[in-house]
């Protein structure tokens, strides 16, 4: 098992989408690279994110980044949909240097690499979100209107899983 952290705007939608991708074992909504170790502090520079535990035999870092690109505007700076601000920036974070190198290579090989606004940085701090934000759209689908990801796209992989069962 390996871990990577992806930020793509509001963490509710990112978690609801990515947790159904084949090869993803576990997800945890949280805050990446802030300075505090609690959610009860003022904004400290964090990005809303999802920590992903994945089976690298089933899904690669590059494939996870492909999936991130499905749900974000990679050119947008500090905004995804209606969510605006530094905490809604897009990013790829890891404590594994190979993950970061893979992400940089992935972006660098794209024709639009010079327009991509996704930060690729070492993970220096991760703070799990409060329980009410974990799997929020699973527990409160009525809040989907707050999410920038269309419902059909949000559940693309859960629908595919259902078709194979």
Automatic annotation (TrEMBL):
GO biological process per UniProt: cellular response to oxidative stress
Tell me the active site.
10
| Claim: Oxidoreductase is one of the keywords in the record | yes
Q: What is its EC number?
A: 1.8.4.11
The Gene Ontology CC terms held by the record are: cytoplasm
Reaction catalysed by this enzyme = L-methionyl-[protein] + [thioredoxin]-disulfide + H2O = L-methionyl-(S)-S-oxide-[protein] + [thioredoxin]-dithiol; [thioredoxin]-disulfide + L-methionine + H2O = L-methionine (S)-S-oxide + [thioredoxin]-dithiol
Q: Source organism's superkingdom? A: Bacteria
Q: Which UniProt keywords apply?
A: Oxidoreductase
Q: What are the GO MF terms of this UniProt record?
A: peptide-methionine (S)-S-oxide reductase activity
Task: Give one Pfam hit by family name.
Answer: PMSR
Q: Which SUPFAM superfamilies match?
A: Peptide methionine sulfoxide reductase
Q: Which protein family is it in?
A: Belongs to the MsrA Met sulfoxide reductase family.
- Function (record text): Has an important function as a repair enzyme for proteins that have been inactivated by oxidation. Catalyzes the reversible oxidation-reduction of methionine sulfoxide in proteins to methionine.
Q: Which NCBIfam families match?
A: PRK05528.1
Q: What is this protein called?
A: Peptide methionine sulfoxide reductase MsrA
Q: In which organism is this protein found?
A: Vibrio eleionomae
Q: What is the lineage of its organism?
A: Bacteria, Pseudomonadati, Pseudomonadota, Gammaproteobacteria, Vibrionales
């Amino acid at each position: 098992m390996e871990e990577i952290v992806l930020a793509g705007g509001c963490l509710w939608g990112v978690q609801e989408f990515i947790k159904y991708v084949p090869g993803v074992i576990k997800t945890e909504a949280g805050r990446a690279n802030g300075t505090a170790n609690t959610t009860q502090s003022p904004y400290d520079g964090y990005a809303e994110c999802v920590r992903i535990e994945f089976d690298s035999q089933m899904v690669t870092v590059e494939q996870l980044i492909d999936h991130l690109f499905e749900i974000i505007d990679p050119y947008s700076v500090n905004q995804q949909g209606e969510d605006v601000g530094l905490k809604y920036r897009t990013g790829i974070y890891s404590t594994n240097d190979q993950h970061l190198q893979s992400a940089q290579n992935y972006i660098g090989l794209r024709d639009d690499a010079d327009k991509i606004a996704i930060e690729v940085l070492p993970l220096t701090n991760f703070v799990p979100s409060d329980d009410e934000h974990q799997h929020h759209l699973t527990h409160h689908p009525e809040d989907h209107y707050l999410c920038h990801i269309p419902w059909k796209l949000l559940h693309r992989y859960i629908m595919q899983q259902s078709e194979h069962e």
